[in-house]
Design goal:
The chain is an alpha/beta fold. The chain is built from 24 helices and 19 strands. The strands form four sheets. Strands 3-2-4-5-7-6 form a six-stranded parallel beta sheet, with helices on both faces. The radius of gyration is 24 Å and the shape is globular. The relative contact order is 0.11.
Length: about 550
């Protein structure tokens, strides 16, 4: 049945039909009809931010902590451009995030007259950054194009998309028929010959490692079953954390897995770019495109292009869960895992823990956070010394509970992303760790946290520096410092001025009760942790270890 709807109403109604019930945004002139529709919608909750970048980061946090698509809305031109760091983060993390934006009046499209917020070609600009972008030219076209956006966003390798509508069209009304929710395209089916080739490699090997990435988050049961059947160790760098929970007999941190890497005969990468093995463990500046055995390299990935970006010995193009299950079902019943290989896992874990113990004070603070944060609580990292250490030093027990910016390394994403995670998971504890430099990128969102009662606990490690940059300048450039030393506000007083609980902890022992109380209060809180300048031990030898036979470090 059709209804008379404005362009903005048609977009909102069709987005809701696809299961979105929370939109982050910042209104402006071109977007008034859409935001008015959000305000009148009984199916939508809207959280408005203090900066466009926060709206996109919050949408990113929502999808990365729920596994479901999310949406944000901002004005076109500078508004959209302010969100592009978050959009490229979503692209890098294969996150289904939808941007809803406007355009100049339709009569001005392509005219270059300098209308409000005009870009030379906004749609084409976005197409260079994200998976898909389109414009809706009539209100009645909105349902079909919104559905196509959803289909693009969730089909194959997920990714961010954008839908735009001209200023005048968004206010126009027309008879519009809403549609049922979009469906994802059918995933590719694994090639039986590729499955057979993988089985042959596995049958001839015993020392097997599985690398899981974000593309395997929905394949928990299949990954567990395959690892158990093969007696394989399982590791993950960032995006796949928690698929096999830390503490499981087969789970290894990246540091522990690196100890076994020289003796690994087969690597099976599931939903992973294998960045760890073929970028970080081989050096960050020399590209590996076609790995040489040993180990033999098997990939299971839904994206066929991945098989050309890093060529495996066997490539299985399939959904991670389906492809892993097919491989498991095809294994010879006579295959026996090597108990000697499995017997080395605990020694590697113990050795790794001893070795990383020197990464202080970061590791001691992370130990306290892990002890206090519930197992299903959400931990959002940042580009800071504690965040880097968390790659290998913070145990994760379930997918969707460890949120990262992935290979983009997007400084300043963390707190804003954590607010989105909390908005989408109101019943869970959310802890955001930050450096002082990165936190200041989104400090204005303390106001958003206070306004909407988003009970994120932000821990700000304050060393009055961009710590990584400062260390590199000291070590590599004869101590010449530029732009790396920072003058900061009183973070506790700043938080309190926004109506956020402000606290300070000078040690891990002081942090523990403060964090426990803040989580229990479920109110917006900031805990500043002063860190003496130059006191943090570099974690980088465990993130980019020198290649075998080399004394070169990151």
């Amino acid at each position: 049945m059709s209804e008379v709807l404005s362009g903005g109403e048609a977009i909102v109604r069709q987005v809701a039909a696809n299961g979105i019930d929370l939109v982050f945004g910042l209104p402006g002139a071109q977007m008034y009809p859409l935001f008015d529709a959000l305000e009148r919608s009984n199916a939508m909750r809207t959280i408005c931010t203090r900066h466009e970048q926060a709206a996109a980061y919050m949408a990113y946090g929502a999808t990365q902590s729920t596994g479901r698509p999310s949406a944000f809305s901002v004005v076109p031109g500078p508004g959209v451009l302010n969100t592009t760091a978050a959009l490229c983060t979503a692209w890098g993390r294969s996150a289904p995030v939808m941007c809803l934006t406007g355009q100049v009046p339709s009569a001005y499209l392509g005219k270059g007259r300098g209308h409000l917020h005009e870009l030379p070609d906004q749609r084409e600009t976005l197409r260079t950054l994200i998976k898909w972008a389109e414009r809706i030219d009539r209100p009645e076209d909105a349902p079909a194009i919104v559905n196509e956006a959803f289909s693009q966003m969730i089909s194959g390798r997920p990714g961010p998309v954008s839908v735009e509508m001209c200023w005048d069209v968004m206010a126009e009304t027309a008879e519009t028929e809403l549609l049922a929710a979009a469906e994802a395209d059918a995933p590719p089916q694994a090639d039986p010959d590729a499955i057979a080739d993988a089985v042959k490699l596995i049958a001839a090997s015993r020392n097997i490692m599985i690398m899981v990435g974000g593309g395997a988050r929905h394949a928990i049961d299949e990954v567990h079953a395959l690892a158990t059947r093969l007696g394989a160790c399982v590791t993950s760098f960032r995006s796949g954390r928690g698929i096999v929970p830390d503490g499981h007999d087969l789970a290894l941190s990246t540091v522990a897995a690196h100890e076994l890497w020289p003796d690994t005969e087969v690597l099976i990468a599931i939903g992973s770019r294998a960045e760890l093995q073929y970028m970080r463990w081989t050096g960050m500046r020399e590209i590996v495109e076609e790995p040489q055995a040993p180990p033999h390299f098997i990939r299971i990935d839904i994206d066929a292009d991945e098989m050309t970006r890093l060529k495996p010995h066997v490539g299985i193009v399939a959904d991670a869960a389906a492809g892993t299950r097919q491989l498991l079902d095809a294994l010879d019943a006579a295959f026996e895992p090597d108990l000697a290989w499995r017997g080395r896992f605990e020694d590697a874990r113990a050795s790794a823990r001893r070795r990383i113990g020197k990464i202080q004070p970061q590791l001691s603070y992370l130990d306290v956070i892990r002890e206090v944060l519930p197992r299903d609580g959400i931990f959002v990292d940042e580009v800071c010394q504690a965040g880097f250490t968390g790659y290998f030093g913070f145990p994760v027990y379930a997918p969707l509970t460890y949120v990262t910016s992935g290979f983009q390394g997007t400084l300043g994403f963390g707190y804003q992303t954590a607010l989105g995670a909390k908005a989408a998971n109101t019943d869970k504890a959310v802890v955001s760790i930050n450096g002082d430099g990165g936190f200041m990128y989104g400090v204005q969102e303390l106001a958003t946290a206070a306004q909407y009662g988003l009970g994120v606990v932000a821990i700000v490690f304050n060393n009055n520096a961009f710590g990584n940059v400062k260390r590199d300048q000291q070590q590599r450039y004869d101590g010449r410092l530029i732009g790396s030393e920072l003058r900061n506000p009183d973070f506790v007083a700043l938080a309190e001025s926004f109506g956020v609980d402000g606290l300070r902890a000078a040690s891990p022992e002081e942090l523990k009760p403060l964090l426990a109380k803040a989580i229990d209060n479920d109110r917006p809180a900031l805990i500043e942790v002063p860190v003496a300048p130059d006191s943090e031990v570099s974690p980088w030898e465990f993130i980019v270890p020198p290649p075998p036979g080399s004394d070169r470090s990151y």
